[in-house]
Structure formats: structure tokens, C-alpha cells
Design goal:
Blueprint: H1 11-17, E1 23-28, H2 34-47, E2 56-60, H3 63-72, E3 82-85, H4 86-98, E4 110-111, E5 124-126, E6 133-135, E7 139-144, E8 149-155, E9 158-160, H5 167-181, E10 183-184, H6 186-197, H7 203-213, E11 216-219, H8 227-238, E12 243-248, H9 264-269, E13 274-279, E14 281-282, H10 287-295, E15 304-305, E16 313-319, H11 328-337, E17 344-348, H12 351-358, E18 361-362, H13 371-384, H14 388-404, H15 411-416, H16 421-436, H17 444-461, H18 468-474, E19 488-491, H19 495-500, E20 501-505, H20 506-509, E21 514-520, H21 532-535, H22 543-552, E22 555-564, H23 565-574, H24 576-579, E23 584-587, E24 601-603, H25 626-629
Parallel strand pairs: 1-12, 1-13, 2-3, 2-11, 4-10, 11-12, 14-15, 16-22, 16-23, 17-20, 17-21, 21-22
Antiparallel strand pairs: 5-6, 7-8, 8-9, 18-19, 19-24
């Protein structure tokens, strides 16, 4: 359904490309060709560029998007131009060169990326009157002002309640950490960028310096820009000498947990010299799916299909499962609706639902009081889900804290302490193998004891002044730890569907498109998962409705809404016009799993992989690479 070369540019796209406004703001619906318009605008600027020593900044929300833009431009763009994320742009051209103006050390700062920041345990600060303490690295800037920001935090126990009266002290502790150690997280960087560019004394001068370096700024996916990052961007666009293009879709603003708000479009449109355009015609969605997307539009916008578009297929598939499970019969019904050569995505709102669908759930999470133990168990799950780089960094944190009292040493710091990088990586390899191994009959205290010994033995090799009591304090056993450690459970699912389908969360497929999309909605729960009949259509603006909009608009041919019977009945009663947009209603055949029982499940080795020969370690990196860690096997003994 993508437009052919002869279709580009259509009348809406041409209006945007021919715009002479200082700031061209584009509200573009899914599949309207906004990325193509963005790239073409960039190409036109490059073809006429004559300003030596200055460049164009082409900014996007994700690395994937910026790689797509760079590829479309032939991967030939280089200095003085910049193609990258807005986050990296602000870090490189605002925070690092001007951070000393707001308290960062003059020698520079060091970024601690997510999710590694969640593994940084100290320093802690009290966040509420219940005497709850949490690591400064786990406290994030949400919104508010630079003087009185709203903060959010989450640790292994769940979200932390940060009381407003504690914010000044937390902010002071943050600033002290920045000044003394130069360690910042991504949200710290966003807050610092806004603090620099909006500073009452020097903010305007810094904005003009950056604007002089980049007089043309192009921004893709504006709706995903966080609160403070958005305020920093507004300061640059406010400089009269700057011109640019800003594109996005308020209906696809699904990152409110990170401070993103669809209202940023209003802020940009209110800038002097800004003119707003709309692109409402989708080249992706057929007529029925476009109509469903329009019904889910949080802004009330209409998504129009092409005149020659097909009707498409829209199906309600009704299940009665109490727990998500992609069993044989459900897989067969999905396969029936999706042709063999069509791309298929099975998507859901939450990670837990996805884990249930692909059969990767745990019968028992970590039991105990050891923070280190909980983090290492988290590292195991990250590794088993393909995030081996982050898993090895979390393991490295435990070893480096013990050996160096430094949670995140660089290669240079290791060498300065006479630590061979190759031997260091071998040690991390062994610790991760111990963390991920599963032994029949082992409880959590046994696991802690075994992992503790592996880490202690590894630390001794790096001249650790042995202090077993210090190590025991980090891996303290408890009565809770007497619970048996249960291996990952694999559901008896249809492998053919799993091999064919992309099974991800809605956030993970944002920006993608598929021939057939299955949106799986679990049984509604009054607290954890309200019924879509209420959650998607509240009295005010709803992020959940925007998330559903993103899900539906990924489909190019077929959209299957797989919902619980209770959800379908509620939608039929409260949203009959929405239900009427679907051509078919299919009921999933009732099975043992559908009635609430689990499909037959067989325990298997945690993260089991085919055995391979011993991998060759890369001595140029601090942490084992994914290919190096791939040789780890986990055995039941």
C-alpha cells in the first residue's frame, strides 16, 4: 500500500515541501509518507547548502529512525551536518560543552545509559515521609519547571512515591552528584539541556551559539519528545535565525511515562513564524482499518485512505482465557486469517502479556532480601530475552564494586589498576554463567551462595583484599530464600506461528508496519487492566487510546482484535459504532487453557541454547559481546 514514485509528492506532501514558513509544523497520520517528506526536505536543503562552517541538524526520536533517515540520504552525510537523535544532539552540543555553567565538572560528564542506571544502587536519598530511600540514578525527571521539577522513580519494589516536600533535597543531591562525579542519566541530560538553554542569564546566548552552528533544524516524531527535552528544543526554535521542519502525530504520543505530551505541537505552532500543515491521507491502511484508526483518534482527526485502497479485513477474535497463551487452537485461527506469505505481528500492551504469549514466563520470581541477588536475577532474564550486553554490565557492576569500589569503571581505569581486560571479560563470562545456571532442587539461598562464591573467587583473582563479611552482606540469605528456584516454563505453543510472527509490545513496533496485525487484549481487570470500553474512551485525553491507535494503524491488510468475551460484550454495549467497523466476529474454541487452566507446560533449561564451541573473546571491549555470551549453556544438575 506504499505510494509509488509517481504518487510522490501528493498535494498534501507538496504543500509541506513548498512551504516558505520559518517553522513548518506537520501533523501527519500513520502511513502518510512523513518520513519520505522529511528526507526530501533534508535533501533539498543539502542541494542548496552554501553556508560554510554551519550545518543542518536532522533529529529523530530513536536510533532506528535516524538510521533510516541516514540510509535514505545515502549514509554520506557528515560534518558540519548532524543526523541523530534529539537526545544525542542535546548531549553533544548543549550539555557537554556548556554543562559547567549549571554545575557539571569542566572536564566533562559521563552518561550512564538505561537500563544500566537501574542497577546503580548508591548514592541513595530519602523520597517520602515513610523513610523510603532510593538510588539517585533511579530518580527521573518527568515534567514541571527547572526550579520545581516533578520526579518519578521505580526500583525492584515498584514505583516509589516521591513527595513534593522532598524534591528540593533530592534535586540538591542530584546536583552534588553531577558536580563531584560527573555521572548523569538520560533524563538528567534532558533536564540539564533545558536548564542551560532556559537559564535567565546565559540561556539566550547559548541558544544563539547553537543556532549559529545549526541554522536549520529538522525534527521527526515530535510527539515522542520528553518534557524537558521538548522545552530545550523550543528554545532553539525560538531563535529568529533558525528555520526548520517539525513533523509528527499527536495521536501517536505514547511515551507519557517519559514526560512526552501531545501538547508540544501547540507550543511549536505558537512560535513566531510557524505555520501548521496536515497530512491526513494514509498510504498504508485500507479503508476499514483507516476507519478504525479514526475511531481511536484521541485528537478527533480523520485518517483517510487512498481513493483506490481496498477495504481490508477487520476481525474480532473472542477468547475466554484468564491468562495470555498462544496455544494451538488460537494459533490456528490466526494462521487462517493471515496468508502464508504475509508479514504477521502479534502485539500487546504489556511485557507480561507478551511473555505469556511466547511462553516465556517464570513460575517464581526472586525470593529474598538481597538487592544484589534481585538485580542478578533481573540480569538473567535480560540475557534470556536477548539483552546480553546489558546483562553483562549488570554482572560487571557487582564485580567492579567489590574490586574497585567503582560501579562502572572504564577500560582505562581497569588498566590503571593492573587488570587485564581479557581476564576481566573471562570473569564476567563465568559469573553470568553461574547466575543463569539452574540446578534441580535448588532454592534461592542456595543460588545466592553459589553466585556469591563465584563473584568472590573472581574478585580474588583481581587482588581483592578478601572480606567475606562484606560479600555476605550484599548476598544475605533470608527465610524467604528457602523457596525453590523454579526454571523458566515453556508453554506448549504452535512453533509455526512463533517462527512466522513478530511478537512484541505496541511500543516496540511503533514505526513498523505489517500485512496482518493481531492486537491481543487480555481479560480485563479492575485495577491492573481496565476494560478497553472504558480505558480507550475516558472523559478526557487518553494515552491508552493513543496506544490502541498506534496498534491498529500498523496493519496494511488485516487487523485482528483478539479480546476477552467480557471486553467484546462491553464494547458491543457501549461502543456499537466501533464494533460495527469489524467484518467478522469469531469465537475461539473453548479449551482447558481457555477456561482458565494452563496448557500443558514442560519445564526446560533456563535460556537453553544449542551447545557451541568455546567462544573467542573480544579483548577490545570491556564487556563480553552477545556473540561471545551466546556460547553459554545452562544445565540442570
Amino acid at each position: 500500500m506504499s505510494p509509488s514514485n509517481s504518487d510522490f509528492p501528493n498535494s498534501e506532501q507538496k504543500d509541506v515541501l513548498d512551504s516558505t514558513a520559518r517553522i513548518t509544523v506537520v501533523r501527519a497520520c500513520p502511513g502518510s509518507g512523513k518520513t519520505r517528506v522529511f528526507v526530501e526536505s533534508m535533501r533539498r536543503h543539502l542541494n542548496s547548502w552554501q553556508k560554510k562552517g554551519t550545518g543542518i541538524a536532522a533529529l529523530s526520536f530513536t536510533n532506528v529512525a535516524q538510521e533510516q533517515i541516514a540510509k535514505s540520504l545515502g549514509n554520506s552525510l557528515s560534518c558540519p551536518h548532524f543526523v541523530g537523535t534529539l537526545d544525542s544532539f542535546m548531549l553533544r552540543f548543549v550539555v557537554r560543552p556548556f554543562g559547567h555553567l549549571v554545575g557539571l565538572p569542566r572536564e566533562g560528564s559521563r552518561l550512564i545509559p538505561a537500563p544500566l542506571d537501574a542497577a546503580m544502587e548508591y548514592p541513595e536519598v530519602q523520597v517520602n515521609s515513610n523513610h523510603q530511600k532510593i538510588s539517585l540514578f533511579q530518580i527521573r525527571f518527568l515534567d514541571g519547571t527547572e526550579d520545581a521539577p516533578n520526579l518519578t522513580a521505580r526500583d525492584f519494589r515498584g514505583p516509589a512515591n516521591i513527595e513534593a516536600s522532598y524534591v528540593p533535597k533530592i534535586l540538591a543531591s542530584k546536583k552534588s552528584l553531577w558536580e563531584n562525579r560527573g555521572l548523569i542519566t538520560h533524563t538528567d541530560s534532558h533536564y540539564l539541556a533545558a536548564s542551560i538553554l532556559r537559564h535567565p542569564k546565559f540561556g539566550k546566548a547559548v541558544s544563539q551559539l547553537v543556532a549559529r552552528r545549526f541554522p536549520v533544524i529538522l525534527v521527526d516524531e515530535l510527539q515522542d519528545t520528553g518534557w524537558f527535552l521538548g522545552h530545550a528544543l523550543l528554545e532553539l526554535l525560538r531563535v529568529p535565525s533558525v528555520s526548520g521542519l517539525v513533523v509528527g502525530d499527536p495521536d501517536q504520543a505514547i511515551y507519557e511515562f517519559g514526560g512526552a505530551r501531545p501538547t508540544i505541537f501547540n507550543d511549536v505552532e505558537n512560535l513566531e513564524g510557524a505555520v501548521c500543515y496536515t497530512m491526513t491521507k494514509t498510504h498504508r491502511c485500507p479503508k476499514l482499518i483507516a476507519a478504525i484508526s479514526s475511531a481511536l483518534s484521541d485528537s478527533g482527526s480523520t485518517v483517510s485512505s487512498r481513493d483506490d485502497a481496498e477495504d481490508g479485513r477487520t476481525i474480532f477474535l473472542i477468547h475466554e482465557m484468564t491468562k495470555a497463551c498462544l496455544d494451538e487452537k488460537l494459533s490456528a485461527q490466526i494462521a487462517e486469517a493471515c496468508q502464508e506469505n504475509e508479514s504477521l505481528a502479534i502485539i500487546a500492551r504489556k511485557d507480561a502479556t507478551i511473555r505469556g504469549l511466547i511462553g516465556e514466563s517464570t513460575a517464581n520470581n526472586f525470593k529474598g532480601v538481597s538487592h544484589a541477588g534481585r538485580r542478578l536475577d533481573h540480569a538473567m532474564h535480560l540475557f534470556c530475552h536477548g539483552q546480553s550486553s546489558i546483562a553483562s554490565r549488570m554482572v560487571a557492576k557487582e564485580l567492579s564494586w567489590l574490586v574497585l569500589k567503582n560501579e562502572s569503571p572504564t577500560n582505562e581505569e581497569l588498566r590503571n589498576n593492573d587488570i587485564d581486560i581479557r581476564e576481566w571479560k573471562h570473569a564476567l563470562y563465568g559469573i553470568l554463567q553461574s547466575v543463569c545456571s539452574y540446578y534441580d532442587g535448588e532454592d534461592w539461598n542456595d543460588w545466592l551462595k553459589r553466585v556469591k562464591k563465584t563473584i568472590g573467587d573472581s574478585a580474588v583473582k583481581f587482588n581483592w583484599e578478601e572480606n567475606r563479611s562484606e560479600l555476605s552482606g550484599r548476598f544475605r540469605a533470608s527465610e524467604k530464600g528457602n523457596a525453590k528456584r523454579i526454571a523458566v516454563i515453556a508453554s506448549n505453543i504452535d512453533d509455526s506461528i512463533c517462527d512466522k510472527a513478530i511478537v512484541k509490545t505496541i511500543h516496540q513496533v511503533k514505526g513498523d508496519e505489517f500485512d496482518c496485525v493481531v492486537l491481543f487484549v487480555p481479560k480485563p481487570h479492575s485495577k491492573n487492566a481496565p476494560c478497553p470500553s472504558e480505558e480507550w474512551w475516558p472523559a478526557s485525553s487518553s494515552e491508552e487510546r493513543r496506544i490502541a491507535f498506534v496498534a491498529a494503524s500498523r496493519a496494511k491488510k488485516t487487523l485482528i482484535m483478539c479480546v476477552h468475551r467480557n471486553t467484546y460484550d462491553a464494547l458491543k454495549e457501549k461502543r456499537p459504532k466501533f464494533v460495527a467497523l469489524f467484518q467478522q466476529v469469531k469465537r475461539r474454541q473453548r479449551t482447558h487453557a481457555a477456561s482458565g487452566g494452563a496448557s500443558e507446560a514442560l519445564p526446560h533449561e533456563v535460556g537453553a541454547r544449542p551447545s557451541r564451541s568455546e567462544p573467542k573473546l573480544n579483548t577490545h571491549a570491556l564487556y563480553p559481546s552477545r556473540s561471545e555470551l551466546r556460547g553459554i549453556t545452562f544445565k540442570n544438575k
